[in-house]
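Retro notes (design track)

What went well: tokenization of the new backbones is finally stable.
What didn't: we kept losing track of which sequence belonged to which structure.
Fix going forward: every design gets posted as structure first, then sequence, in one message. First example under the new rule, 430 residues:
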């Protein structure tokens, strides 16, 4: 699971080239050395202040006394002028805020002296709070050595496996590799795409938006849970212990519940929780409820199954999704509907001493199993009741539900239940 994104600073989050060049050239000029074009500094930066000044001085750096004078003059000038022309790259501020909204920690690790980093970040990103923001610290070797990055992660309570790193040079690629973290490069910095690709960067973004999308896709692939395997793990555990836990199963309709009940009743003492205020047409609601009760009365179960009805108040649903009436099916309105029904399920499960709660909704090919499980897990933590992960579509669960629906002659509706999905269903027919 990825918990933190760490950025290089110069050439990655901020374009600091002009101020770096001006300050080094200031030191060069004061000490009788030739100033260098700003463009040259693209190849000078990346390995810390010492290497920056060495490269700018050329062979003259071997004169130790002269080198120290140039460095001191650079430090004095840069301390005052590090933000004169330096600014965040386009889209980086927005990208950082979007990462924060996803609950990700953010950090900065630069090879420039530590005292300059905070000053630059406060001006460029005044509203963003970095978990850690480090420049070069004397107790750690500079990048590409992994020491500083690993220490920063440790201070953030993050492992290398939980980190994603971003930079603009081969130094950053090597740093990530040495630390054992995944990374991506950015083409807008000082060194360019070719250097990054040649160093082995798996991906190079051309815009902050592209970088954000890549990070999200990477995180999704890393954090994606195999919900069927999680369910298998729980079942293996409880059967090994000889336990039959109490499960509250939120049910939306008899067809969807058929396979779920057949499958889960082998391992759990199930109570069906029929809570669906989104079904605003009373006749439709009552018919679905009666079909659920009929199915439970007819199906053979290894462990008993009973049905309880949640409070039926359609006005609660309409109030909850107010403002989202024109959202497409599967959009934000559906997400709120899932949350409404699952939160009621979590509360009921907690109040009545259940061991787990889950929903039959994941059996539908039209429902987002990841979203449902994410909401369920979140509510499970909130109410202190374990969420039972599921994706009942797996192992041909949906196909089996169709077979069982025919076997028990179940009413199969052609819309989810709310008036909005009914409207969309009718429009698609016309």
């Amino acid at each position: 699971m990825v918990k933190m994104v760490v950025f290089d600073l110069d050439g990655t989050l901020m374009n600091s080239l002009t101020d770096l060049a001006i300050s080094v050239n200031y030191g060069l000029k004061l000490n009788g050395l030739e100033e260098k074009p700003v463009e040259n500094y693209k190849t000078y930066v990346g390995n810390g202040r010492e290497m920056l000044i060495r490269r700018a001085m050329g062979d003259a750096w071997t004169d130790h006394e002269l080198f120290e004078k140039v460095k001191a003059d650079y430090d004095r000038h840069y301390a005052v002028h590090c933000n004169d022309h330096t600014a965040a790259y386009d889209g980086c501020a927005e990208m950082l805020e979007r990462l924060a909204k996803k609950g990700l920690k953010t950090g900065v690790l630069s090879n420039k002296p530590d005292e300059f980093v905070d000053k630059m970040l406060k001006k460029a990103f005044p509203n963003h709070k970095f978990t850690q923001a480090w420049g070069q610290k004397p107790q750690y070797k500079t990048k590409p050595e992994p020491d500083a990055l690993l220490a920063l992660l440790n201070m953030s309570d993050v492992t290398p496996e939980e980190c994603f790193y971003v930079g603009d040079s081969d130094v950053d690629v090597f740093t990530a590799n040495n630390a054992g973290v995944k990374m991506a490069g950015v083409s807008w910095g000082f060194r360019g795409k070719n250097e990054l690709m040649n160093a082995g960067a798996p991906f190079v973004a051309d815009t902050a938006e592209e970088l954000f999308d890549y990070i999200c896709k990477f995180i999704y692939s890393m954090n994606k849970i195999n919900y069927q395997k999680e369910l298998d793990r729980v079942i293996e555990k409880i059967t090994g212990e000889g336990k039959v836990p109490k499960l509250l199963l939120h049910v939306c309709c008899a067809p969807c519940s058929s396979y779920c009940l057949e499958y889960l009743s082998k391992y759990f003492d199930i109570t069906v929780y029929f809570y669906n205020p989104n079904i605003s047409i009373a006749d439709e609601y009552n018919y679905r409820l009666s079909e659920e009760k009929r199915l439970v009365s007819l199906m053979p179960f290894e462990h008993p199954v009973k049905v309880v009805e949640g409070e039926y108040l359609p006005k609660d649903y309409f109030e909850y999704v107010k403002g989202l009436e024109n959202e497409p099916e599967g959009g934000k309105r559906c997400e709120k509907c899932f949350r409404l029904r699952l939160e009621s399920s979590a509360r009921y499960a907690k109040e009545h001493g259940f061991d787990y709660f889950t929903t039959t909704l994941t059996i539908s090919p039209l429902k987002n199993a990841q979203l449902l499980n994410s909401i369920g897990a979140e509510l499970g933590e909130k109410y202190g009741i374990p969420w039972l992960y599921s994706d009942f579509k797996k192992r041909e669960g949906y196909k089996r539900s169709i077979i069982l629906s025919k076997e028990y002659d179940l009413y199969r509706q052609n819309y989810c239940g709310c008036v909005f999905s009914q409207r969309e269903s009718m429009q698609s027919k016309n």
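Added context from the reviewer: The two ends are 46 Å apart (CA to CA).
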